[in-house]
Structure formats: structure tokens, C-alpha cells
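Suppose you are handed a protein chain with no further information: no name, no annotation, nothing but its sequence. What can you learn? This example shows the usual starting point.
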Amino acid sequence: MATSACAETIVSADYAAPTDRYAHGILGDAIEWGALEITTDTGTRTFALPQERVFEDVAPRLVDLDQDGTPEVVVVETLNTAGAQLAIYDETGKIAATPHIGRTNRWLSPIGAADLDGDGLVEVAYIDRPHLAKTLRVWRFEAGNLVPVADLPGLTNHRIGEADIGGGIRDCGQGPEMITASADWSRVMATSLADGALTTRDIGRHIDRSSFAVALACQPLP
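A reasonable first move is to predict its three-dimensional structure. Written in C-alpha cells, the prediction is:
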């Protein structure tokens, strides 16, 4: 898709306005974020959330979801009465989101975004409630909306109190795979999407974050 000559291009995004107004602390401390700062090639805009919302996340992610040559911003946004949702922002503000999980103190941890099934559209993936439901969910960004594609239980990528999120997406020459842990954290799992279905396989023992690094580098695990 051609990009308009006058369109702005997002070059970075950061969370701002640290706050303790949402008492969850899933990432190891009491601080979440009350605003998102998006910097484009023409300046910086700040999107401040209302009092009942926070960004409950490690960092914003820049991904070209609509494949127009410029990125959008992927975040975790939480409503205090309904938990987290995966949300998409551009330089104009929030443009798409998944439903909130449905109750307070329920969170999701992103895995990443890619054209997971080779259909020409970008999917985004996350673990829904990585400490409880431990369910991989994949959504497709299509015509400006996030459309559900497939779910698979039994996977996780975060433990309560960790300040980062494990795993990610790799392509070792056979197409994209989502790298997570098994639900009991004993194994590293590689999951792929094809024909609307998720298939997962055990690729080795999980020891610590180094196990994910080895897997993402397409190296063998013990």
C-alpha cells in the first residue's frame, strides 16, 4: 500500500506518567503508566488515559500491522474493572483493540506480531492470563480491526513478579513460530498457525530466559 506523502511516520513510542492507581503489580512493582507518548517525524503526541485505565506493560511495540510501510503501536491497556486488552494506537490515537478479559486484576502478555500463516495479513499473538488461563490467542489485523483467529491452551510466557516477558516470534526458515513455555514451565514450545489452526511442538527443556534466547536464535535446545 502506498503511503501518502503528507502522512506522518511513527518513529518511537514510550510510556509516561507513572502511576500507582491500579493495584495489581503483576510486573514486580506497583507502578503502571498513565500515558503513551508517540513520536512521529513531525513531533510528539501524548495520549493520556482516564483515571480508570492504565498501560500495564513492559514497553510499547512498533509493528507495521497494515503493511503500509509505517508502524503502528501495540500496547497492553487495562480497565480497572475489566482487566487487560491488547490495543493498537497510531498517531491519531487508539484505533483497534481486543475485548477486555472481563474482570479486574486479569492480564495478558504479548508474544509478538507477524504474518503467521502467509496470507498477507499480520497477526498479533499474546498469552491470555499467563498465570491462570495460560492460553495463546491469535488475532488478525484486518481492515482496521482485530479479528480473532485461533486459541490454544497450555502455554505461558510470564510468571508473577517478572519484570519482562519471555519468548517471542522466530523464523528459522520454515515460517514464523511463536516461542513460549509449556504451562508448567518445564519445556520450550514452538507454535505455528496454518489454515486457521494452531499446532505446537516441544523443542527442548526450559531452564531460564537463556532457553528462550537459544530458541529464538534457531539453535537446538537440550
